[in-house]
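worker-3 :: picked Transcriptional regulator
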Amino acid sequence: MTDPWVALEPGADPAERVRVLRRAHERFTERGTVERPVRSVVADSWRRSAKAGVGPDGGARVELTDGDLGAYRAEHPLARVMPLVRELMGTFAADGEHLLAVCDAQGRLLWVEGHPTTRRQADRMNFVPGARWAESAVGTNAPGTAVAVDRPVQVFAAEHFIRRVQPWTCAAAPVHDPRTGRVLGAVDITGGDGLAHPHSLGFVQAVARAAESQLALLEPPGAAVDDTLELTALGRDEAGLLAAGRRIRLSRRHSEILVLLARHPEGLTGDELLCALYEDESVTPVTLRAELARLRRLLGPGLLASRPYRLTVPVESDVAVVERRLETGAVTAAMTAYGGPLLPGSQAPAVVRLRHRLAEALRTALVARRDPDLLADWAHTPWGEDDLAVWRALAAVRPTAPVRSRLEELESELAAPARWARPAGRAPRSPRHGPMP
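worker-3 :: tokens ->
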């Protein structure tokens, strides 16, 4: 096969491929081994699905209904391009007895539209607005896998991890925020085996690119682009900044400075910045002034003032978004906005404290919420894979064999130091409870 992202190579017999895939799926669920002709993208997805504790006889769960769904959709960025998506995909879906679907970055379906008969059939497997189709919740499927791997993907018939979804074929492509590059969700076309054609993959990719172009043309609601800096610092060592339409990639030190100035719109003195940024007390004010001079040149005239050091325009940051959502109890929305630990490579004392405080607030909210899908999303991230408290909470609400096995591994690691004698006065190793700096 020339393109591993396309489900069927030219000339392949769909019926025969379905039979072979079903046998491969059974072998995987029984033995955990993947054999040809399962594509690598599907094999990797099956492994992630199994690791997340998804069972082949499971199903999707509806998370948002009625007013909650309506309010969430209304404020979602993709709501602004739904007229375009309908224009491009609606006729194709209706005429071909397919469905068009749009999900958010967590794989939650926001819109499902198309042929009425096909919709009724899809309703029986909860392929409906408000249902969670993340890969960690229902296994391999086009919209969930597209946002998981951040690229267009087809899923054909028995490539789906859950058996009740295997009569279907789908193709989906992620949609990104044109300013920050973050995944907003995905557009999907779902229907019969005919969608395994390469054209369906190219089609959804073209629709996703059109949606991104439309978003780029639309002025952000509530603020003009020139009036606000947009800072993206979660899950990355070098923050991204959008300033007056310019995308700027910041150095690590400049990232730290802007994160701190965004937290303190009233400004910080040079001494305050020195204490916040440097562990080494021998660092002189001259070093800091040089960094600030370079940052001022990078930002352009008028954006960075001094005495005290402060930004002269408002700053919207992904850190502030997560904090606001947690304050209002919107845990799912906060998890959606959380791209990972704040500047994970930074050792600046104030950044380390903020990183730990934000992660702890979110993980505490997740444990209290006891939502198995949200807990699984956190547990299967690089920063959550060793988080003992989250794995314990996940095991309490989703006690599958993979989850119990991983919890036993972590608890065994925690107990391991007790098997060796410790020198007098030395404390035992602390358990790993959350993201490390």
